[in-house]
Design goal:
Blueprint: H1 3-6, E1 11-13, E2 16-18, E3 25-29, E4 36-41, H2 45-60, H3 69-85, H4 87-98, H5 102-126, E5 130-134, E6 139-146, E7 149-153, H6 159-173, E8 176-180, H7 188-199, E9 206-208, H8 213-221, E10 227-231, H9 234-247, E11 250-254, E12 259-263, H10 269-281, E13 291-297, H11 301-313, H12 333-348, E14 352-355, E15 372-375, H13 382-385, E16 392-398, H14 401-409, E17 413-414, E18 417-420, H15 424-431, E19 440-441, E20 455-456, E21 459-460, H16 465-470, E22 473-479
Parallel strand pairs: 7-8, 7-10, 8-9, 10-11, 12-13, 12-18, 13-16, 15-16, 18-19
Antiparallel strand pairs: 1-2, 3-4, 5-6, 6-22, 11-21, 14-15, 17-20
């Protein structure tokens, strides 16, 4: 990475690069070396005001609202092409920012993002933004119009992907966006801005202001914003929901998870662990959908626990830029302290460390934690109930299928889950009883054509699929007298 790529001085507002109102700077620290590797402006509330004004102007007076959905799709396709052309650069940058392993970054951080954009590009070309209906009194036209200016607030773990979950449907709907990246990962959004410029995205359709929580709250409550789209912790989501509720402001919230993987008594050990482990430790365990509660039958508990511990213990921990690394450092010192606090809590509450539980040897610098497996876990323990957001797995025994379903559903969260069995029909029956937004059978996946989101405290609304687009649309009914059209 060159110094030019890692040091930024301006903000992207209104289709151009503008000097920030504040002199405050975000220092980007490498999770692997603990050294400052980049800098970017910390946006102020005045910068948010400028960004929202630019987005409003683009929505009202710019070319964007006059474009057809097909014309917007052409711009979106050009944006995807620009991002794909710089895919390795983006992947390397995100790895440098947040410690995401290079083995995960290209697909998980970049191509997954452009695939979401490509899905909504095609949907924009085919979606029925108007339809005609026959009413009792006469014909009716139902229009689907953009909700307006969207404030998109994204986390640091998969910054481009969570951005695209919001930006892509917003663009397809005809909305304009003010994006607030997390202060831990401000730099990759600059490549997104450059790609938007090169793709011909009209001025003000995308505005980017990286900042911390206080500035984010200003965006949430800004009178010029029509909708908030947020991915992050359940605690922050509750605060945003309260603010949006007071303002009657639309919001979608993709929040925390504590997903259960139900391993049936007929599951093959080797096949199951080979498929499950990447879903449990992806992105250094810093994924809201991570399968971190591993429910195993008591009749085979020792067998599965030993095999899981052996597989986790064999994971390659190291420099996230090394393609051989499977688990890199956590994103920040604060995050490592959080994870280590949960490991201590697991021990204090009587769980047994089957593997890991400390800091890996040989890493004097970097925010590393050993991939850890706890055995003898009761589902009431903190390590089974609270989202850890690190490479820490809890093996929980169950007696029968009813017991497994009860344990899986005994959670304040309901975002993801999986079922592993030699019998697909049996696994499907279990999946249908789980109180969670997405469930995979004998694998782990997210399908971009289908809604993604959570039950209970895992959020409000859905992203992906046509259901995700619907959250960026307002419905208008135009009625005519009989024979009036």
């Amino acid at each position: 990475m060159s110094d030019v790529e890692m040091v930024r001085t301006d903000l992207f507002i209104g289709g151009g690069w503008v000097a920030p109102e504040s002199t405050e700077v975000i220092e980007v620290v490498s999770p692997a070396t603990e050294e400052v590797i980049g800098r970017a402006p910390h946006a102020s509330t005045a910068d948010v005001d400028r960004a929202v004004a630019a987005a409003r102007a683009a929505l009202v007076d710019g070319p964007w609202p006059a474009m057809s959905a097909g014309e917007r799709a052409e711009v979106m396709a050009a944006l995807s092409a620009q991002l794909q052309a710089r895919s390795m650069e983006i992947a390397d940058l995100i790895t440098a920012e947040n410690g995401s392993p290079a083995s995960f970054s290209l697909m998980g951080q970049v191509f997954a993002s452009t695939m979401v954009l490509d899905y909504y590009t095609e949907l924009a070309r085919t979606f029925a933004f108007t339809d005609e209906r026959t009413g009792i009194m006469g014909p009716v036209t139902v229009r689907r119009e953009p909700v307006g200016v969207v404030g998109a607030i994204v986390p640091w773990n998969v910054p481009l992907f969570t951005t695209m979950l919001k930006l892509a449907p917003a663009m397809a709907a005809g909305c304009t966006v003010v994006l607030k990246p997390a202060p831990e990962t401000p730099l990759d959004a600059y490549i997104l801005a450059e790609a938007a410029e090169a793709a011909g995205v009209p001025a003000g359709v995308l505005n980017i202001v990286a900042a911390g929580r206080e500035v984010g709250e200003h965006l949430v409550t800004h009178p010029g914003v029509d909708k908030i789209a947020f991915t992050g912790s359940t605690a922050a989501g509750r605060a945003i929901a309260a603010l949006c509720g007071q303002l009657l402001r639309r919001c979608t919230l993709e929040l925390g998870g504590k997903s259960a993987a139900v391993i049936c008594d007929d599951a093959d050990v080797d096949t199951t662990i080979a498929g499950l482990l990447p879903a449990s430790t992806m992105n250094n365990g810093q994924a809201c959908v991570a399968q971190t509660r591993l429910l195993v039958p008591n009749s085979r508990k020792a067998e599965f626990t030993d095999a899981i511990a052996a597989a986790v213990g064999a994971l390659v921990v190291g420099d996230p830029a090394d393609p051989a690394t499977q688990v890199g450092p956590l994103t920040s010192a604060r995050q490592r302290e959080r994870v280590e606090g949960y490991i201590a809590a697991g021990r204090d509450q009587g769980a047994t460390v089957a593997v890991g539980g400390g800091r890996p040897a040989g890493f004097d610098r970097g925010w590393y934690v050993e991939p850890t497996v706890f055995a003898d876990v009761d589902n009431g323990m903190r390590i089974a109930q609270e989202e850890i957001f690190g490479p820490v797995l809890a093996v929980i025994g169950y007696d029968d299928v009813d017991d497994a379903v009860a344990i899986a559903n005994d959670s304040e969260y309901g975002l993801s889950g999986s079922v592993w069995s030699a019998d697909v029909e049996r696994a499907t029956a279990i999946a249908n009883r789980m109180q969670t937004g997405t469930v995979s059978v004998n694998g782990f996946m997210i399908e971009f054509c289908a809604p993604f989101g959570g039950f209970k405290n895992s959020g409000l609304g859905r992203e992906l699929g046509p259901e995700g687009l619907a959250h960026y649309l307002e419905y208008k009914t135009v009625m005519y007298p009989s024979g009036g059209m």
